Amino acid sequence: MLDYRKIIRVSMILTPRTIVRQFTIIIVILSLFGCAKRSSTPYSPRPVEEVPFLERAQTQSRHGLTVTASVLSPAESHEVFGVDLANKGVQPVWVKVENESDSFFTFLPISIDPEYYSPGEIAFMFKGNFIKPDYIKMDEYLEELAMGIGVIPSGEERSGFVYTDMDPGVKQVNVALYTLHQLEDFDFFFKVPGVTADAVDFDSLYSEKEIVNYDNEEELRAALESLPRCITNKDGTGKGDPINFVFIGNREDIGDALIRRKWDVAETVSESNRIKRKEFFSTGRYRTMPLSDYYLYGRPQDVGLQKARRTKRGNLRQRIQMRLWLSPTRFKAEEVWVGAISTDTGSKIKWEGLTVIEAHQIDPDIDEARDYLVEDIVFSRNVSKLGKVKGIEPATRYKPHVNLLDQPWWTDGYRVVFLFQEEPVTLTELEFFPWEVDENREFEN
């Protein structure tokens, strides 16, 4: 191995001309070593047809149009494009449009992601990985596989990749096709390999005898007001966050609304409560960071969701976190999901070997998170009706409630109720349950 320190020490006793010559040699040697390093990883992507991402493709047809789409996992995108796109926060989406209608349609990749990447942007991310010929090859290949803005004439088809921002866990893909007088939207939802969430068999949680169905809104109101006040720890003692919202509707409609509003599924917490050190201390968002377990109906949350904030290295992580449980209650045969939402302003972290003990610090004005949920979910256009019921004793900053971690919090005492449907609902079409009428007026204003 070349010892540069010896060369430098020897050069110090040489003449100025010799010194220049020696350093020139060193620079040349270093350049050659650098080139050798870059050329040791030639650009060699795997042929698209050999990567099995199309096995998970979904297809929809309407009005003479057939759209097929698939989302690549991090490993698959690495194979297809020969570089680690996931490490740069890029997630390729494959789209195919077949036009058997009588009109031409225009495809706009911005409908899939308003901040999608151009092939040139992707190539530049990896410019330092390759020598110039391989860099040009990569750039051309990314361009060749891309599906950019374009017209699909009648009787023709187009396919390719849109380079989108990374969505872990579950990803919504909206493909919009336009003519001068027509818009066709195709909505897909994909489970993306790589994130392990809690698996619950919802259909087996309750027996038929345990399920109680209400057809009357006043009976439903009474049932929701009689729910437990707060979630708790495993042995059922103490108070955690308040139960401050309820979702009613078809499971798929609720899930679609949450995905559309960019709620991320939390990873499963292992028995040792481990989290990914690399992700925890990174400066980006840890979008699938596990939630600590809280209990209702004798079990931890059925579904954990969150919206994570970006952080600076060394800062505690912040997020809005949501826990959901399927209840034994039904309203007009629709499922009733009970939830607790709060804002995690930071975390107390303690490492014991490879085990991390985490306790979230909540925003004490806990209604802020609940009210954010109202703003957020109504824009999913899946909510048809909204209302409030009494939930827990009101508390103030000067006389707060205290949670299991002795953290103070306060609330107006209400829980918000959302009724979902499949068909899109505009804000002007939104209806209200006839409960706590004075409180509902704030939504109308």
Give an overview of the whole structure.
The chain has 3 domains: 4-39; 48-191, Sandwich (Immunoglobulin-like); 202-444, no CATH class. Helix content is 23%, strand content 31%. It contains 10 helices and 22 strands. Helix 1 (4-11) packs antiparallel against helix 2 and helix 4 (119-125) runs antiparallel to helix 5. The chain is globular, with a radius of gyration of 28 Å. The N and C termini lie far apart (74 Å).
In terms of per-residue confidence, which ranges show pLDDT below 50 for 5 or more consecutive residues? 4-14, 26-39, 271-275, 280-284, 439-445
Radius of gyration: 28 Å
Quote the average pLDDT.
82
How helical, in percent, are the residues?
Answer: 10-25%
Tally of individual helices: 10
Strand content: 25-35%
The count of domains is 3
The tally of beta strands, per DSSP, is 22
Describe the biggest sheet?
10 strands, mixed
Structural class: alpha+beta
**N→C terminal distance:** 74 Å
Gross morphology is globular
